[in-house]
């Protein structure tokens, strides 16, 4: 209102000609003390995340919750190199989703002391945590096979490159928290039933379809009559491998997944699996982080005697841990073992 229309037009035309787009975002972030962005720390490879319908469902739910806030979502990988996204990308907060709990990127996020929520990770004091009943779900899956009569059962789990291979004993430890929980749940049932499973640990960075490990597993002697899989994605790879070696599912081989991803209903036979509400998980994690960002804690340093501290809103009351339920869904991929 202090400029004539002609002068305003002249200034805007000059700005347009020079390519000026407005205040520098970095300077603006410094001035207001926030970046306007939150990070989602995923896996070593975003390519792998986008081929997993559970990961994309989680991201969709997170994005929908953040959309009304105007905050931007930045996808971060756990890969390390000259640039470490968890260390170098400007963020107001972060959601850490199903990563190795002692990884370098996660240590950087903790050192930055930004608000964060952990999903599918072990509990850390002071950091809200969202998980599902992984161990209970794995127990239900194993119990289903044992009650059908299976005793030669194989397990397939993700691990690091150093952990890969076919094992005759369950591994003592695994880097991924969810893999450990599901393994413990399976063994809670298989151990007392006298079942000694053969175990395939597959690097998370390599899609199972790109290896011959499953075929090797199915050709071991004696051959497994059932397979418990860490995820539906792995279970579908087992269905494909069974077809390759001429095994009928469920006549020769029963297969159980975990997650109840959309592809579990698309494949034939339909996949017996453990259902989790991944969108509820994403919404819970996003809402907690939004609450943490909306209700900053008061500064921890003491104020001078003459200083009158402003009143801060009370921090949002959130549960330290949210555990979501799971259910066994029985479809056509499981049946009693073949008569021998």
Gross geometry: elongated
Number of E strands: 13
| Strand order across the largest sheet | 2-1-3-4-5-12
What fraction strand? 15-25%
Residue-averaged pLDDT, rounded?
Answer: 83
Question: Number of helical segments?
Answer: 12
The first-to-last residue Cα distance is 90 Å
Along the chain, the helix and strand elements come as HHEHHEHEHEEHEEHEHEHEHEHEE
Q: In this structure, how is the largest beta sheet organized?
A: 6 strands, parallel
User: What structural category do the secondary elements indicate?
Assistant: alpha/beta
| Unreliable runs | 298-318
Rg calculated over all Cα atoms: 25 Å
Q: Considering DSSP H and I runs of 4 or more, what fraction of the residues is helical? A: 25-40%
Supply database-style keywords.
five-stranded mixed β-sheet; six-stranded parallel β-sheet; 340 residues; alpha/beta
Question: Would you give an account of this structure?
Answer:
- This protein is α/β, with parallel strands linked by helices.
- Helix content is 36%, strand content 17%.
- Helix 4 (53-66) runs parallel beside helix 12 and helix 7 (134-148) runs parallel beside helix 8 (177-190).
- The longest helix is centred in the last third of the chain and has 17 residues, at 278-294.
- The radius of gyration is 25 Å and the shape is elongated.
- The chain starts with a helix and ends in an 11-residue tail after the last strand.
- The relative contact order is 0.14.
- Mean pLDDT is 83; it is low at 298-318.
